[in-house]
Amino acid sequence: MRPDVLPSRPANSEDTLAGRPRKNTFEQLDQPGSVRINVQGAFIVDEESNSPPRTGSPARYGQDTKDIRLPHHKSEVSHMAVDIGGSLAKLVYFTRDPNGQGGKLNFKSFETEKIDVLISYMDRLVNGEREKLPHATRPLDEPLYVMATGGGAYKYFDKIQETLGVQIYREDEMECLIVGLDFFITEIPYEVFTYSEDDPMHFEEARVDIYPYLLVNIGSGVSMIKVSGPQQFERIGGSSLGGGTLWGLLALLTPARTFDVEMLGMAERGDNTNVDMLVGDIYGGGYEKIGLKATTIASSFGKVFKKQTEAITESEVAMENGAASSNGRCGRFAAEDISRSLLYMVSNNIGQIAYLHAQNHNLQHIYFGGSFIRGHHQTMHTLSFGMRYWSKGTKKAYFLRHEGYLGAVGAFLRRQPRNWYENYFHPHVPQTR
């Protein structure tokens, strides 16, 4: 897909937009098109020690994604990248180390419905607001570029361009996802891992021979992409029941309003057996002949109708006797239990569809990306268990510590020159519209 670009505004400090001076003073964004990202010694920054944890699986929901240190990268970078989806917008940009020891890739996410917050943050990057972003120290000699992907790259194109006054290149969403995932698989240590209750973050070694594989990208909806080689991919399926579904239903059925902390936090505390009908509720135990344990979910929300009917009957009797009526329709069900049931319902559905596509196309490696997972152990457990169960242990679910940033990183990398990344990159020269 040919990227779209608008002419850049002059980059000198006297340039004005909307009646105010523009001072492009973010020193880490410089010399467009000349950067070669040096991934030698790259690692994911740990809060405690500036190095990646090798074991354990701390919950990431509600926390910022870890940045990636590039200790040997010396060149300036003159662009940032943004992936604007239906629910979340993800931003990636490079900053130099103030001590001259390379730099790092920074990762930030924003709710798409609060797009002005994202644009304001990007504007501070462009203008180098020292109080907010202390890395900004000197004026630019070259214009800044923004690489944009996702549906919001079209929906908010004019708004972003008008505010920032910079060149914006729009990149194909699927291509960016693949470029980003290939980069993480092959170049970043301690990025890809499998999940189990005994070993919640078992890191996989970087592999050169990575194809073919299945990418299950879970955003507002779900896309399943078969990748056969560099720039060789096809969307083989998907589902409308994704992260946006979970988010929307939780907003309707619970008082939670934030996904990271409230919704996932409630799911963590909930007990889905108060809402879901299990095999044991039907058989009094497991149905071992066909491999169903008593704890297997037979019907998501299967207990609600019966309990709700009983509650209505009790309420009618109470009212006839002069007592106050019971709570509303969801009053008999804890928000935490509803949250956990919905999380399992959406995750199980995605996991089974992913397995069926992998089986049909003979794909052994299944990577789960997108902003749905958030490092939440119940989600990863559900997807991992389902993959092992349905494949009888022949397939694994692979997760990434930067699972929500595949598209943004892919867009960021699409701006690089020839041969900067030998394993993947093919030169891409943006064309003006």
Report on this structure.
This protein is α+β, with helices and mostly antiparallel strands and 433 residues long. It is built from eleven helices and 18 strands. The protein has helices at residues 115-127, 152-155, 157-164, 173-187, 243-253, 259-269, 279-283, 304-320, 335-360, 377-391, 406-413, and strands spanning 16-17, 20-21, 43-44, 68-70, 79-84, 88-96, 103-111, 145-149, 167-170, 192-194, 202-203, 213-218, 222-229, 232-239, 277-278, 297-299, 365-369, 396-400. The strands form four sheets. The chain has a seven-stranded mixed beta sheet, with helices on both faces. A seven-stranded mixed beta sheet has the order 11-10-18-17-12-13-14, sandwiched between helices. Strands 1-2 form a two-stranded antiparallel ribbon. Strand 6 and strand 7 (103-111) form a beta hairpin. Helix 4 crosses helix 11 (406-413). The radius of gyration is 24 Å and the shape is globular. The two termini are 12 Å apart.
Secondary structure: elements and pairs:
Blueprint: E1 16-17, E2 20-21, E3 43-44, E4 68-70, E5 79-84, E6 88-96, E7 103-111, H1 115-127, E8 145-149, H2 152-155, H3 157-164, E9 167-170, H4 173-187, E10 192-194, E11 202-203, E12 213-218, E13 222-229, E14 232-239, H5 243-253, H6 259-269, E15 277-278, H7 279-283, E16 297-299, H8 304-320, H9 335-360, E17 365-369, H10 377-391, E18 396-400, H11 406-413
Parallel strand pairs: 5-8, 8-9, 12-17, 17-18
Antiparallel strand pairs: 1-2, 3-4, 4-7, 5-6, 6-7, 10-11, 10-18, 12-13, 13-14, 15-16
Helix pairs in contact: 4-11, 5-9, 6-9, 9-10
